Amino acid sequence: MSVGGSQNSLRKALGAIKDSTTVNLAKVNSDYKKLDVSIVKATNHVECPPKEKHVRVICAAISATRPRADVAYCIQALARRLSKTSNWAVALKTLIVIHRALREVDPTFQEELLSYGTKTLFNLSHFKDDSSPKAWDYSSWIRTYALYLEERLNCFHILKYDVETERIRTRDLDTPELFGQLSALQQLLYRVLGCEPQGAAVHNFVIQLAFTMVASESVKIYKAVSEGTQTFVDKFFEMKRYDAVIAMDIYKRAGMQAERLSDFYEMCNSIDIGRGNEFIKIEQKMT
User: Fold this and answer.
1) Domain hosting residue 209, numbered range
2) Residue 130 domain-assigned (yes or no)
3) Do 113 and 171 sit in the same domain of this protein?
4) Which of 42, 103, 177, 248 could form an SS bridge with 173, CB 3.0 to 4.6 Å?
5) Which CATH number goes with the domain that contains 284?
6) What global pTM score does this model have?
7) pLDDT tens string 115-130
8) Among 53, 39, 50, 139, residue whose Cα is nearest residue 96
9) Residue that finishes a domain, picked among 98, 123, 148
10) Nearest-CA neighbor of 124 among 80, 83, 78?
11) Contacts of 137 (CB under 8 A, 6+ apart)
12) Helix, strand, or coil (residue 253)
């Protein structure tokens, strides 16, 4: 076995020992034994997606029916898992669990995350797993993924609803509120485009799983931007000059992002993300 192979095998063995130790400690010392064990097992060092049964336990623990103290405990446990690890698999799987919860749990969870602080939770700007060249590529993608999730929450804060799980409302807004929401949505779309994997990250199955969720969410984001821009195009000549200048800037940015998103979806096709589903096609580019 090569030196690199031996180091990798040793690292996996140490990770497994660390996971086992953490699980055993949770069983003995924690008031939230089942939840803590599920968090550790869902975000362990094994280089595969989080197991569904553990994700379900976590999502159940943070639903609107649970005491807020329980939800806060879960958020703190996930944040602690993120902040203490230098292993790409643990960091990525923790982000995937949070992303799944954003998609599948009621909006009260997002409100609790905002109260906790997105800058604190997703502060992975210096995260780096330097165990191998592949791990460097994985680390780079994890940092961009964290930025996307942070922006997703910020967008929820501005829109007051989740653009992925709820009805798009940009057609119903007056001009000032529309401008604010479109700016937030365009910033979120910018983060989507930044999630294109590079190097070894392209072929990592766990990253592909997370990236598929990001790519699929871009559809509703794009539709919300498109509907919003159409709304102020319809009343452009009725706007005050100042508003018209802002509207034109947003419209130009939307056109540029549509071009980039079209290329982004072609890239998704090339690496078999989406497997031919409609979300990897823009029917009409803005001009």
Assistant:
1) 164-287
2) no
3) no
4) 177
5) 1.20.58.150
6) 0.89
7) 999 888 999 999 999 9
8) 50
9) 123
10) 83
11) 198, 199, 200, 201
12) helix
